[in-house]
Amino acid sequence: MDHTHGLAQLPKSSRRRSCGRFFYPLVSALTVVVILSAWSLVSGFKLVNPAFLPSPTDVWAAFVELCQDGYKGETLIKHILVSLQRLFKALGAALILAIPLGLAAGSSRLVRAIIDPIIEFYRPLPPLAYYTLLILFLGIGDESKVTLLFLSAFAPLLIGIIFSVQKIPQDRLRVARSLGAGGWKLLFNVVLPSCLPDILTGFRTSVGLAYATLVAAEMVAAISGLGWLVLDASKFLRNDIVFTGVIILGSIALIMDLILRRVITIVSPWLDQES
Q1: 49-71 as b/e, with b when 16 or more CB fall inside 10 Å?
Q2: Among 65, 145, 171, 258, which residue's beta carbon has the most beta carbons within 10 A?
Q3: Do residues 157 and 98 lie in contact, with contact meaning Cβ atoms separated by under 8 Å?
Q4: Among 116, 114, 221, residue whose Cα is nearest residue 158
Q5: pTM of the model
Q6: Using CA atoms, how far apart are residues 156 and 254, in angstroms rounded to an integer?
Q7: Distances (CA, A) of 33 to 141, 237, 251
Q8: CA-to-CA distance for 30 and 99, rounded, in angstroms?
Q9: What is the mean pLDDT of residues 11-26?
Q10: CA separation (Å) from 182 to 101, 112, 178, 229, 235?
Q11: To which CATH superfamily is domain 56-267 assigned?
Q12: Is the model's pLDDT at 64 over the cut of 90?
């Protein structure tokens, strides 16, 4: 069977998706290879002081060291789990509060008028600007860090849900009401399903913001976590460990984003995530 002839018979959009399924991941893989190759060459020829730019082999050796011996009395897995626990607590609280409040604010101008000045006041502020206040009230433990992450994730998620509710076509709501849907039925059978793709997209943005804030929070008044590990290693000029920590942080963020993108694709398959 002539596979080339069969591919040529597919519609243009189908051929594009079929080729893109392999082409774009290949481009991404080649990009990583080029970056690693350039890094190896620069460090190999010592174009940059090795104290500032360790080689890939040094970073790999530091990763093996962290896996075997841990860091400052804690295993690498423990540092990762501590960071993720703080993140997931904050994201869970943001989802639980933002979804009902966003649905209410999107449907009611009164609710919007109440919460708008609060959200718009703190949303533009850099998280570390009010982190000192959180430490004063909640202490230097996980409570202040989780609250900081919650505030970072809550505002963009809430705003996204509000706009999602507002853009639901009125014809869809009128048809649902004419068929007998109202109150909770309208909310759970029409409004929430209509907003679900936007909720997940907003949640994806909130995860990125909270994750960036997590690193900053762990660099202040912490004794565990990946952010603290990177900062502490930098004090002793262990740039191999610093690079290792940064790569681990980036890899975790990439995995979480890929999972969320996959969930968004499943929930809303009409959105072309590969375009």
Answers
A1: eeeebbbeebbeebbebbeeeeb
A2: 145
A3: yes
A4: 116
A5: 0.81
A6: 20
A7: 40, 27, 15
A8: 40
A9: 66
A10: 19, 21, 9, 53, 60
A11: MetI-like (1.10.3720.10)
A12: yes
HEC sequence for 82-120: HHHHHHHHHHHHHHHHHHHHHHHHHHCHHHHHHHHHHHH
Using pLDDT thresholds of 50, 70 and 90, give the confidence band for residue 129. Answer: confident
The one-letter amino acid at 267:
V
Alpha carbon distance 273, 126 (integer Å): 30
pLDDT at 207: 92
Q: pLDDT, tens digit, for every residue of 167-208?
A: 877 777 777 677 766 667 777 777 788 888 888 888 999 999
In the structure encoding, which two tokens stand for residue 185, read together? Answer: 């039925």
DSSP-derived secondary structure for the chain = --HHHHHHTS-HHHHHHHHHHHHHHHHHHHHHHHHHHHHHHHHHTTSS-TTTS--HHHHHHHHHHHHHH-BTTB-HHHHHHHHHHHHHHHHHHHHHHHHHHHHHHHH-HHHHHHHHHHHHHHTTS-HHHHHHHHHHHH-SSHHHHHHHHHHHHHHHHHHHHHHHHHTS-HHHHHHHHHTT--THHHIIIIIHHHHHHHHHHHHHHHHHHHHHHHHHHHTSS-SSSHHHHHHHHHHTT-HHHHHHHHHHHHHHHHHHHHHHHHHHHHH-TTS-TT-
pLDDT digits (tens, 9 = 90+) for 223-275: 889 989 998 998 888 999 999 999 999 999 999 999 988 888 887 765 554 44
Q: What is the pLDDT of residue 190?
A: 77
